[in-house]
Amino acid sequence: MRLRLTTLVLFFGTMAVFAAIPQTPETPSDQVSVPILIYHSIRPYRATDLGGVRKYVTTPQALDEEFAFLKENGYVSIDFDDLQNRLQSGKALPPKPVIICFDDGPETQYTYALPLLKKYSFTATFFLFTNAIGRKHYLSWDQVIELSAQGMQIGCHSRFHPYLTRISSEKKLWEEIAGAKETLEAHLGKPVTVYAYPFGQYNEHIVELVRKAGYTCARGTYPGIVHSREDLFALTGLIRTANPKSLVISLGGSYDVDRKHVLTRRS
Q1: Secondary element (H or E) of residue 228
Q2: Longest dimension (CA), the chain
Q3: Structure pTM?
Q4: Are 79 and 125 in contact (CB under 8 A)?
Q5: Closest by CA position to 239, among listed 65, 39, 102, 101
Q6: Using an 8 Å Cβ cutoff, are 6 and 219 in contact?
Q7: Phi-psi region of 102 (alpha: psi -120 to 50; beta: other; left: phi over 0)
């Protein structure tokens, strides 16, 4: 497994090296191209937002534009179980699959993102750290249960969202990985199969614990869209912000600046 100690990386469209490769019957089962889009806060900008905050904010208008591009160009949303089944057993995926993620669980994801997911008939995976659920400005348990009932996948993002690589206590590490999983499963009444490393950071020991806890795959934040069986616990993604142009270019399309809309992906 190619393990990577990662930090949050903002993906810009100039990194076109990660342009999607076609999904064909000849694609080996142990390697597949699936963009994993990582969103955080979905809301309008605020006058008080600093640059460090804005880079993790996607405006509803930008999210609408990105979803429109995906829909118009034939992308079909899948979840991490679909990806894992493709890599492990060769189960077929749609010709142009995409995984949409929302991290951390701010309530704005329910307010702004959920209606847009419904508008475009997309599903998404919501990665939640359990200590925040029910707190001010975060999703409530009722909202989390509703998301699950509406076909959204719920993934685990730890208990307190710490830097896992800085924790020396095995008991605390296990609580952040397995304990948080148990809490989510107790409320949802269904298995939680996917983990997202807080801040994208992990090492071999953390991966070992994630496997032991019963997850089938895990995602970091290193940029990329090509995944393999050996990297099921080091899945890559594209951190999104309010810049639809970067998404279009990274997926091999072109963007008309004057007309303010995205153009069909180049063949």
Answers
A1: strand 226-228
A2: 55
A3: 0.85
A4: yes
A5: 39
A6: no
A7: beta
> Encoding tokens for residue 179?
């304990």
Q: Is the distance from CB of 122 to CB of 63 less than 8 angstroms? A: no
Domain 42-251: assigned CATH number: 3.20.20.370
H or E stretch at 188: helix 180-188
Domain residue ranges in the chain: 42-251
User: What is the token pair recorded at 146?
Assistant: 């509703």
Angle at 156 between CA 151 and CA 158, to 5 degrees: 160
> What is the spatial distance between Cα 18 and Cα 220, in angstroms, rounded to a whole number?
16
Structure confidence by residue, pLDDT tens digits, 201-247: 999 999 999 999 999 999 999 999 999 999 999 999 998 876 767 77
Burial grade of 85 (CB within 10 A; 0-12, 13-18, 19 or more): middle
Centre a 10 Å sphere on the Cβ of residue 206 and count the other Cβ atoms it contains: 22
pLDDT at 242: 61
Alpha-carbon torsion, ordered 261, 12, 196, 66, to 10 deg? 0
Burial class (CB in 10 A: 0-12, 13-18, 19+), 16: exposed
